[in-house]
Structures are given as structure tokens and as C-alpha cells.
């Protein structure tokens, strides 16, 4: 029985990693195809700058809702989840419809503020593309709810599969029409990438289930858990806006090259997160609810070790790949890749490798805090390290341009992991001492979840 559960856990992790790798590779393929056909210049800079408002809402709000919603739903029985599905879907969808309309109206004022170094023509194009891409915000909000329902039911594969299907379709559309329709088509493809997965998952809601549950209390609980995260996310998740602000003053193409390199590294970390962390979150929430702190700590330690090894391996492989690519630079020109582009990417990877080395560790620790219902500690830590990172990016930009920004980002991730790790160790030591004094735990849950590590 134990061996069977171990095999199931491994198969799930591998399947999630492969699905996530597939959808992220195709997504990066879309971005690279766009750059190869249109060039790393003002048009692609405008496309990426135009996505800032959508990405800002997703990173600051929707990601935090997802972090909180999964353990909140996982701790409830299936009857309660069935009743809550539609109210959450409608409520969050309606809220982000209003947000989309508001951002559409203020985009001509916000986008130029985010990229003050753009030429007038580039700024106008960025606003136009921003308004197109904002239409994907409603799809992103709906996908957040639907994906959380799947994960709370321990169904992890279909959300990643839906993203992969939408991304493949988007890539096909882009290759068919980019040469004739230009950068505007690339913006509409981004809308498809955000909305398509939600359409594929909507059947998860099932029929509308009338129930007597106090929906207001659930929304209040969700808000109380999310609220401390929003302030931290406003600092932590907005680093790309600061990067785009600074790079708008550099040569055309600098913004898009920095952004694409960050996306490649973030995509690698996300693959590891999906395979190693996402399947463990419902289990961690269950262990925390039952007070099984020894098993909770054991599972967290296992994920930290796996994630640390994965990050180190990824950094070595990515650095080696880019270095090797530079030696074949002349042969890659047919793919739209120049030696100068590869040199810039190599510098960013080496200087910003802290994202690969520490990003996954931070994700494990943050989710461990969230799983036990503690959102204040990681919020305060990430606010502090993000403020430090902001100051470091300003200094780094003045002293070293793109390289300085990348080094500052590495330092920020390393500092965040260190502080979260120290606080997690102290908190769990206190939990374990308390559990020794009050050894009341759910043995069945402890045994089964312990094998997952």
C-alpha cells in the first residue's frame, strides 16, 4: 500500500512537471517567434510593456487569491466545495470585470508612467496593445477559481493540460498570421492564452448547487486571508514593472531581452514548483489542521532539499546552454538570434541566477506558511526584502545597467529565502514543542501524508 502511494506521488509530480514544461516551452516559443519575426526593438518593447497592467493584476491579486483559495477549499468537504464553486466563480468574475473596465479607461495614463523612456510612437503603441491584452484579465480571474477547485480535489493535471492546449492553439494562430497582421495579432494571442484555459475548465463547476452555506462568511474568510498578502505582493510581485521602467531608458530591445530572460528562468522555477510543491499544498493544509507537525516539517524539509538541488542543476544547465549557444551564434542567425542578443542573455543569466537558486526555496517556504493559515509573516518578510531590492535595483541600474538590475534581483531572492527559512525553523520548533506536550494527532493522516515526502 505504501509503495503504491509513493509511486502515485512520483507519477503525479513527474506528470505535472512534464505538462508544465510543455505549456511553458510553447509559451516561450510564442515569445521567441514574435521576437524573431518582429525583431528585438520598439514594437516588441511596446508589446511587453503593454502587458504590464494585466500581469500586475495577476501577480498582485490573482496569485494571492490562488495561494489562499486552495488550502481554504481543501480543508472543506466535497459538499461544501460544490456549493461554493458558483458563488466564488461569479463573485470574483464580476469583480474583475469592473477592474478590467477601469484599467481600460486609465491605460493611456498609466502605461506611459510605467515606461517614461519610450519614444512617443512606442508609447502610443504600448497603450493600444495594453487595452487589447487587458481583455484577458477576466479569463485569468475565472481560471484562478476553477484551478483552485481542481487542486482542492487533488486533480492537478487538467489545469496544466488546459493551459498547454490553449498555448499550442495560440502558437499556431501566431505562426499563421504574424507576418501579415503584425504585433496586434501577438497581443490578441495573449488574450487567448489567458482566457482559453478557463473555457476548458468551466465544466468543473457542475450544476448550480443551492445550499444553506453562509457565502458571506466564506468571502470574509477569503478576504481576511488575502488582505495581508496584497500589500506584500504590491512590492514583491511588481519587480518586473521596475525593470521595465529602468530599461525603457536603455537601447531599444533591452526591455524585451531582459523580460524574456526573466521569463525563461521563472518558467523553470515554475516547472519545479508545479511538480514538487503544488501537489503537497493540500496535504500540508490537512496536516496543519490536524496538528501533525512532525509530518508537516518532514514534508517541507523534503521539498526544500529537492527544490534546492533542482535550482542548482537548472542554473548550471541554463548557463552552459547559453554559453554553448554563443559559440554557434553565426549558425543561429536564421532563427532570428544574434551574437549580441546571446551575449546580453548570458550576462543576465549569470548575474540574475539567484532567481533559479533561491526562487523555488522561497516558494516552498511561503506555501508552508500559507498552508497553516499564516500569511502575515511571509508578507512582512517579502515587503522588507522587496524594498531592499528596489533600492538595490536603482543603484544597480546606475552602476551597471541590465547587469546591475540582475545582480540586485539575485540578492533580493537570496535574502528572502534566508529570512523565511530562519523564521520557519523557529516557528516549527515551537510547534513541535507544543505537540510533545499535547500529542493529539490524526495518525492516519500523518502516516499517509508522511509517505508523500
Describe this structure in words.
With 453 residues, the protein is mostly helical. It has helices at 2-38, 42-50, 52-74, 78-114, 120-133, 136-152, 157-181, 183-201, 215-236, 239-247, 254-277, 281-290, 293-327, 339-351, 354-371, 376-437, 443-452. It starts with a helix and ends with a helix.
How does the SSE layout of this entry go?
Blueprint: H1 2-38, H2 42-50, H3 52-74, H4 78-114, H5 120-133, H6 136-152, H7 157-181, H8 183-201, H9 215-236, H10 239-247, H11 254-277, H12 281-290, H13 293-327, H14 339-351, H15 354-371, H16 376-437, H17 443-452
Helix pairs in contact: 1-7, 1-11, 2-5, 2-11, 3-4, 3-6, 3-9, 3-12, 4-5, 4-6, 5-8, 6-8, 7-8, 9-16, 10-11, 10-16, 11-13, 11-14, 11-15, 12-13, 12-15, 13-14, 13-15, 13-17, 14-16, 15-16
For the structure shown, list the relevant keywords.
453 residues, 2 domains, mainly alpha, disordered N terminus
Question: Roughly what percent helix?
Answer: over 70%
Uncertain residue ranges: 1-5, 440-453
Main β-sheet description? none
Number of helices: 17
SSE order, one letter for each helix or strand: HHHHHHHHHHHHHHHHH
The structural domain count equals 2
C-alpha Rg, in Å?
22 Å
Q: Give the overall pLDDT as a whole number.
A: 82
Q: Quickly give the structural class.
A: mainly alpha
Based on CA inertia axes, which overall geometry fits? globular
How much of the sequence lies in strands comes to under 5%
Q: Roughly how many Å apart are the termini?
A: 15 Å
Write down how many β-strands occur, each being a DSSP E stretch of 2 or more residues. 0
